[in-house]
Amino acid sequence: MAIQKKVTLKNIIGYASVNFLGSGSQLLISLWLMYFYTTMCNLNALEASAIFTTARIIDAIGNPIMGFVTDNFLRTKLGRKFGRRRFFILMGIPVITVVFPMLWVTGQSLTYYFVMNLLYEICFTMVIVPCTTLPAEMTQNAAEKAKLTGAKQFCGVIASTIAAFVPGRLFVIFGKSSPDAFLYTGLVYGIMMGLSLVLVYAFTFERDQKDVHYENKIKSVWSIFPAILSDVASSMHLRTFRLHCVLMCVGGIFKNLTTGVFTYFVIFVLMLDPIVTSNISGITNLTSSLALMAFIMTCYKYGGPATYKISTVMVFLSLGGYFYLVHSGTDNITILLTLLAVANMAGRAGIDYVRFFSCHLWLISMKLLPVSAAKDFLPVLIRCCPKWQLQLKLPCWAQGCRCLAS
Asked: CA quadruple 256, 197, 60, 217: dihedral positive or negative?
């Protein structure tokens, strides 16, 4: 086995930069792209939604295919020269930088917008799937992995805040109804994503090629989906897995739906201008990191179920507040909307934390993740998800963690 490299600050910054593509661009698309298509590109809501639905389907199909390709890419000359993960990051730099601004061009046909979104989704998947494996490539140390993922989450907050604020500043310069504001939004953020991917490629690394071994369990890309369907079907026998699927599904749908609808709600229902929408979105994303830290402490002290209930109550109270704003006719509508949006985002942050953090326990229960892999954070996991939810066969070193769940 080759000597393992040490993860340094520049490596952490390089890996974290990928969230300018992951979090930032997705927020920008969710907030403004459908609004842009329906108000300035002569597309109706059905046509625009069909574009985004197709993109989500492509993403679902493309993820496992891209995973298979990048896992086996080391068998090729290009993979051995550039790396099985970083080659696709390098390829994505010029493509993402060029394609993303092309999403924001007016005066084109439905076919143009459909093809451009399809191309962007393919490029996005081509880059983001290999990037998610980089922590496992760069280190086997749990503490270093935690630093990498934590820095990525922090960078995601920064990227999302920038993505939310940029359109508002361009609305001020070009006008609230100017298509140029959206075009320059795409150009500015496209360049930012390209530069961030340069950092990812320059400051990350992969494990030594001598340490990569192939077991050949899946011999072709066509055998991926039967294997996935078989695994999911067998896992559905577990009640915990079914519950977690519901949490992931409902939480994901709500998160994407509220982000996309919020722009229409502010502009067409509350009759506020797009600049207000941009400012509020920036504030809510900036404060979401504080909410996340609060819910991490809540989850550790009171457990996952209690944290999930608190988060859900916050979300529903904020939705009730939105309803009140529509019918109240209050003069302080912008201030109240900002407070309600912050509460809504905070609740969503708590829901996301519980469902993603508890995922490790479901993976352990399905034997998809060895208990030893969770050694450094198992006490927190057990505390966040009490023992009545899941019965694990823990080794001797982990037996003491059960007291944390009582």
From this structure: negative
